[in-house]
Amino acid sequence: MLPMRLEPKPNPLLDANLCSRVFFWWLNPLFKIGHKRRLEEDDMYSVLPQDSSNYLGEELQGYWDREVLRAEEDARKPSLTKSIIKCYWKSYLILGIFTLVEESIRVIQPIFLGKIIDYFENYDLTDSGALYRAYGNATVLTICTLFLAILHHLFFYHVQCAGMRLRVAMCHMIYRKALRLSNVALGKTTTGQIVNLLSNDVNKFDQVTIFLHFLWAGPLQAIAVTALLWMEIGISCLAGMAVLIILLPLQSCIGKLFSSLRSKTAAFTDARIRSMNEVITGIRIIKMYAWEKSFADLITSLRRKEISKVLRSSYLRGMNLASFFVANKIILFVTFTCYVLLGHEITASRVFVAMTLYGAVRLTVTLFFPAAIERGSEAIVSIQRIKNFLLLDEISQHSLQLPADGKTIVHVQDFTAFWDKALETPTLRSLSFTVRPGELLAVVGPVGAGKDLQILEDGDLTVIGDRGATLSGGQKARVNLARALYQDADIYLLDDPLSAVDAEVGKHLFQLCICQTLHEKITILVTHQLQYLKAASHILILKDGEMVQKGTYTEFLKSGVDFGSLLKKENEEAEQSSVPGTPTLRNRTFSESSVWSQQSSRPSLKDGIPEGQDTENIQVTQTEEIRSEGKVGFKAYKNYFIAGASWFIIIFLTLLNLAAQVAYVLQDWWLSYWADEQSMLNVTVNGEGNVTEKLDLNWYLGIYAGLTVATVLFGIARSLLMFYVLVNSSQTLHNKMFESILKAPVLFFDRNPVGRILNRFSKDIGHMDDLLPLTFLDFTQVLLLVISMVAVAVAVIPWIAVPIIPLAIIFFILRRYFLETSRDVKRLESATRSPVFSHLSSSLQGLWTIRAYRAEERCQELFDAHQDLHTEAWFLFLTTSRWFAVRLDAICAIFVIVIAYGSLILAHTLDAGQVGLALSYGLMLMGMFQWSVRQSAEVENMMISVERVMEYTNLEKEAPWEYQKRPPPGWPQEGVIIFDNMNFTYSLDGPVVLKHLTALIKSTEKVGIVGRTGAGKSSLISALFRLSEPEGKIWIDKILTTEIGLHDLRKKMSIIPQEPVLFTGTMRKNLDPFNEHTDEELWNALEEVQLKEAIEDLPGKMDTELAESGSNFSVGQRQLVCLARAILKKNRILIIDEATANVDPRTDELIQKKIREKFAHCTVLTIAHRLNTIIDSDKIMVLDSGRLKEYDEPYILLQNKESLFYKMVQQLGKGEAAALTEIAKQVYFKRNYPGIAHTGSVVMNTSNGQPSALTIFETAL
Questions:
Q1: Parallel, antiparallel, or unpaired for β 1031-1036 and 977-985?
Q2: Where do Polar residues bias regions lie (predicted)?
Q3: Mean pLDDT across 998-1021
Q4: DSSP class of 34
Q5: Helix (H, G, I), strand (E, B) or coil at 295
Q6: Quick check: 1174 and 1166 in contact, CB under 8 A?
Q7: Strand intervals (E) in 1012-1144
Q8: Does residue 1174 register a pLDDT over 70?
Q9: Model pTM greater than 0.90?
Q10: Pairing mode of beta strands 1163-1167, 1133-1137
Q11: Cβ(87)–Cβ(397) below 8 Å
Q12: Nearest to 460 by CA among 753, 842, 83, 1010
């Protein structure tokens, strides 16, 4: 549904004044709210008009469409990059001016620093002019500092917005494209891949815009700095710049390696997420088959490959960060070694000017410039992937002009169609037919005959639960039909909407909906339900994609086509309903139609009303996603680290960090000490006139070299170790979470939509693999630097401690105040992101339905609404963090001002080297302090991912898969099932779905289970498989099912499920995931179910990779694969859950025949809607509202005219009821009085010795 909002809050940025924009004051009201209470979605400001998803997406789409046309004319490949540049270059260019001003200030700052230090070096108490000049320089330095603080954040805010706009536009285009993909294109891509484009690839745009300008600013700044350094220290500066230049190719080399690893990792991640998606969607089946271990192995192996690549790229990143940490040290070392060896003397002003200049350029050259290259190359890979997706085939958009006279007809002439152009055999061959208004064309034929003409599958209800998880099959079908009728179209294509419902509802739907409501429309009904053929104006019989026969019902009867006696003796009832005299409903108003739809759903609920509603389907109301509140606890950090390494390694890592930092500071301190010693020496020399004394160069240089080497080694070691520990931790937690998910009860999956669970495995694990270790290491490095910088300043001028204390207090209060709001904003951002993905994946699954209803525009609007909601949260995330950063840098600026003016006041007590160290550290603190705080908040935000993953590592578990008590190897030999006063509920607080059920099912008995939709039929199976723990007792062959492990239980029962599930992988894996059978056994099973030919035609036979979820097989064929699985398992108990609801009579008959042949010695429970499939059962179990109402042989139940079963059979119409009663009678006598069976009291169909009702369809097929 559209995200519901109260009146959207107008965005205060629209009418904020200049000051408010610069200092982000317009956000103050939001922070006040955040301080008082938790922020909710309604507190977010509405999207700025220029940021709305529709506006941005359509703008970029326009440029892309033009580019595609131009490329066609020039016979070249279209370039998405070109379209992006054309769309955004103007606005982005203006931001370049910001960069220029900011970087210029950075270069000018050190010059004034040098002048201040100069004053100390040539300190003269009597020279007041020098003092005023020094104050002047300090003032300029202060102004520069304040200017930088403000400019930097405005620039960052705007580039991040640019990135956001590009991302939003791309998402809009990707979704728009996904709705238009052709069949062939859908085969080439998977849901996982499209979700990945939308979750990972577009995120690169958020990052790339931040750094892009440094591609030109970096080199420019380097040139300016070299010139200044040349003036300061002459030729030695070239040695330092040389090191910088050498570092660059090294870094870009690392960057290249990194992006190649990245794309390999992406492929593994894609595969892992796709498999996860299948595991989560097919979890019911996986549990019933007890296939968890097979999938655990699959995911574990994919994850292992992925992690090995992640670790490699992490080590590269570690080297990069370490090089960033030590680059400055190496550069200074090389520069001053050259300087001293060339015979110059070190002075404080030269040392610290050089240090600050190198600091400015190093940030740009070793961090921003490589980041621009790295992010740029990542973005290019992503743009390439997105471009390939945008260029996939689309379905042609025909806008049909219907004839003006309202006389619409459907006329098909020699029509041939292919599922995939690459296949030689068409799915449909040379069809011809015509349907006029008021006519109903029925299309029949076996599975795979080619009726899935327009694949309106049983209906993907994206609105109700997630994929309609809360509805039974029959309810989904009804909602679907109602949805179709609301459309009030001229032509209706109905793909077997009647198979998933029980007979009464089916008949009701057919008479009311198809015959009455649509009686003036063109209706084409694909069906397996032969009782409805009589009402059709024409019947079309298909086989293997070709038309076998076409004609009216009466023509077929005359020509001797035997639809079976089911349809022959049909009484007058149907006659009346097929010529309805009801008033036309063509121009019905909406209210009438809603009354009508209530009427249509009433019969399906009427019997359940006394007991409360449709009991089977209320068990799962979906819970809201939990937003954990408050801050991330220490426990989370502890668990996070312990998951990655032992205590010993963690302590070693801590010590390594401290050692690296101490070496870092000592190296700078040694330089300042050296400069001071040198200047004291110079003073004595001037005084005495004795020039022979020189400093011992080898001693000073040796110590300097030693400290430099120590800094480098410690720096690299701690980086690599830190990455190793954290990536390892991510691996451990992923495995724990996956294991926990596999062991979670089915209820968990009903309560949490796929998107939510998948988000943990894609986004959260992605964070833990990728961003969190990086951020964590960065934070640790920067935090230690900040602490050491403040410590050095205090050590030099102890008085600084006085202003530091109030500044620290302000900082902590500010940080707490900020985090109260920012944490909520971040969580809102995560929570508003989920619906974007859920909407995408449900749209992809319901693509045919969306197209059939022409609901593309509505879905696109919904998607845009979801995106806009996410943009609101993202916009707040960007602006709140800038609000904070501006204030932090203000604190730092005050710190710099205090040092600058404080040192001037205390000039007579200080050495130049000390002042230089304190001031240059103070300037470095500017960006660094706010970066460390930002990173600390970032680490905390990302720790939410760790928390979310940990939350899923200890979910409520099912019973263990194996207990100490194992059943004997041959168990169950009899297959006797006893229900002893069994109650069943899906959750502790949910309603009881089965009540006091007591029944005995004897060995090899065939039991049919019938009942209205939602009577508890499927719940009976859930109880048997212990998908939730039943109360009371269920015995199988004298063993209590609750006393053995779930796998021991589930492996011993075979199930043919209602919705057949295939998994990506080979056909072999789908039949036999544990390689327990020989090839011969597998081929035999496939031959039994008549799939051998189909599989042999595939290029790799049984080892051909299936499309996602086996979508290249028809439903019927998938159902046959499920039957083959059951045949292979050779279990004594078989359960069939409405398995033939979606297949045609021939496949149905094949399945029934195989079940009767192959499972003659087994106990078989069949849930059925079609009574003819279970009429020859040994017993019938009639459930109603969760209670067992009747349980006896079908013939005996039919003798009692009050019984529910009798009523059900009668609802099929007199003809079919008579036929079914006849079969029940034969079976009854054959079983109980075998001697009488052949005395002629029962009429047999002589041709094959079977009751005639079962030869339904022989001749037609």
A1: antiparallel
A2: 576-590
A3: 86
A4: H
A5: helix
A6: yes
A7: 1031-1036, 1039-1040, 1053-1056, 1133-1137
A8: yes
A9: no
A10: parallel
A11: no
A12: 842
